[in-house]
Write a structure and sequence with these properties.
Layout (H helix, E strand, L loop, with lengths): L7 H14 L12 H8 L3 H13 L3 E4 L3 E4 L4 E4 L6 H7 L4 E12 L2 H6 L7 E11 L2 E11 H8 L8 H8 L6 E10 L2 H7 L6 E10 L5 E10 L3 E4 L17
Parallel strand pairs: 3-10
Antiparallel strand pairs: 1-2, 4-5, 5-6, 6-9, 7-8, 8-9
Length: 251
């Protein structure tokens, strides 16, 4: 469909997208007012608002109450289709991944950690806390729990530069076969907010991931706190074929 045959709101939207792309409207800049856009494009206020709402849904702009509409930094789009680590994910997206280790120590496994690692509650495990950065900007606050023997080996490595997944597989001969993911929307508590430099209560994607080695042995449990304003997750689902024998009427 040619541009002139697009709905009016989409034509206005495309003009704004072009200006964002070519730098005329850089990240952090304020969009022209509704009145200005109405006059510039000779359209109704309803049309302008529809264009803005579409831009918001695409994550390109945001409304700041009492201030106006501003260009946001494009969100990172990450696919959840296979078991990969942060470094692999960011490199695949053309981003530069780094890490900052905040803490690493031996702790007693609480009920949740013990269950995820198939251990008794109170068993000693290694907990590693890191901030993961993409292009120098904090994106995720990670808590990683490992069985004590394996974790103490990992703690001796430079976790600012070496991914735990790579260490497990390449240095400590612990192949990662599969993982279980749980994704939840939460608000940033004080620890997460400080680590990610966001406001208390900010939107966070919490991913709980348990990774398994051979014989379905859990070797890595993680709580990954991603900034909700910086990333979106996508996946592709196949519809299960229906059994033609089901649903038949029986006389």
């Amino acid at each position: 469909m040619s541009a002139r045959h697009l709905p009016l709101y989409a034509q206005v939207e495309n003009v704004i997208i072009d200006r964002i792309s070519n730098g005329s409207l850089p990240v952090g800049s304020r969009l022209p007012s509704e009145d200005s856009l109405v006059q510039e494009h000779a359209v109704s206020r309803t049309t302008v608002r529809a264009a803005i709402q579409s831009l918001i849904q695409r994550g390109l702009v945001e409304i700041r109450r009492g201030k106006g509409t501003f260009v946001t930094e494009p969100k990172i789009t990450q696919e959840l289709t296979e078991l990969t680590g942060f470094v692999e994910d960011m490199q695949a997206l053309g981003r530069s991944p780094t890490a900052k280790v905040l803490d690493q120590r031996v702790v007693a496994a609480d009920e949740l950690v013990a269950r995820r690692l198939a251990l008794r509650q109170g068993t000693s495990v290694v907990r590693i806390q890191r901030v993961r950065l993409a292009d120098g900007k904090p994106l995720s606050f990670d808590e990683t729990y490992l069985p004590k023997e394996l974790g103490e080996k990992v703690m001796a490595d430079n976790l600012s530069t070496e991914p735990i997944f790579s260490l497990l597989e390449q240095k400590y001969h612990t192949p990662l076969v599969e993982a279980e993911y749980q994704l939840e929307a939460v608000c940033a508590d004080a620890t997460v907010a400080k680590a990610l430099r966001v406001g208390l209560g900010s939107a966070i994607f919490l991913i709980e991931r348990t990774s398994y080695s051979l014989a379905h042995r859990p070797v890595d449990y993680e709580k990954l706190h991603y900034r909700g304003d910086q990333i979106r997750f996508v996946t592709r689902l196949a519809r299960r074929p229906k059994d033609p024998r089901k649903g038949r009427s029986h006389k």
